[in-house]
Amino acid sequence: MIRPPTSGIALPDTRGAVAQSWFVGYCVAGGLFVVAAATTLVLYPITLTSRAFTAIFLSMAATLLFAVASLVCLAIWQSHLSATRTELADALLRAGYHGVDAKRLLGRATARAAVPASAASPPAGAGVTLRLRRERDDQGRRWLLVDAAPEAGQAD
After folding, report:
1. Under a CB-based contact definition with an 8 Å cutoff, are residues 98 and 125 in contact?
2. Of residues 126 and 104, more confidently modeled
3. Selection from 24-38, 51-65, 119-133 with the highest mean pLDDT
4. Would you say 40 and 59 are in contact if contact means Cβ atoms under 8 Å apart?
5. Which residues pair with 142 in a beta bridge?
6. pLDDT tens across 12-46, in order?
């Protein structure tokens, strides 16, 4: 296995795909919750005029089921994101980048923005900008890579 090259930290991304799957489940369950809630609102006046309460009870049960499923998916998704942030924060601490916000670094990974490590304790963080990227190795495993580069205006 050849790890993708980086000028900083390389971590295996063990939770990235799983977290993404739970996010998709959260979106689907949330969408079904909205549809079930709208159906309940449409069925309510019909049920009152026809006195057929089975349809409204089934619709309310489906709404409750999808609401609970959505909340469960949300909780599991957030726990995976939290574990990833903790692993990244530990790796940054071990590499000497004290004071770098892992949550901010992960949040900017999708925007490809850099996070200055100027708040980090010297010597590792003096005048350094960190950039997180996600890549796969030659066997298809996912990696979180943190590249360290000098800040603009800093010489090597």
Report:
1. yes
2. 104
3. 24-38
4. yes
5. 136
6. 888 888 999 999 999 999 999 999 999 999 999 98
8-state DSSP, 5:
P
Q: How far is CA 6 from the centre of its chain?
A: 22
CB 43 within 8 A of CB 55: yes
The string of DSSP codes covering 79-122 is HHHHHHHHHHHHHHHHTT-TT--HHHHHHTTTTT--EE-TTSPT
Whole-number pLDDT of residue 17: 87
> What does DSSP say about strands 9-12 and 142-150: parallel, antiparallel, or unpaired?
antiparallel
Mean pLDDT taken over the chain: 82
**pLDDT tens by residue, 62-75:** 999 999 999 999 99
Instruction: Give 85's contacts (C-beta < 8 A, 6+ positions apart).
Output: 102, 103, 106
Paired tokens of 105: 């670094």
What amino acid occupies position 28?
V
> How crowded is residue 113: how many other Cβ atoms within 10 Å of its Cβ?
13
111 pLDDT more than 60: no
Give the other-Cβ count within 10 Å of 81's Cβ: 18
Amino acid at 96: G
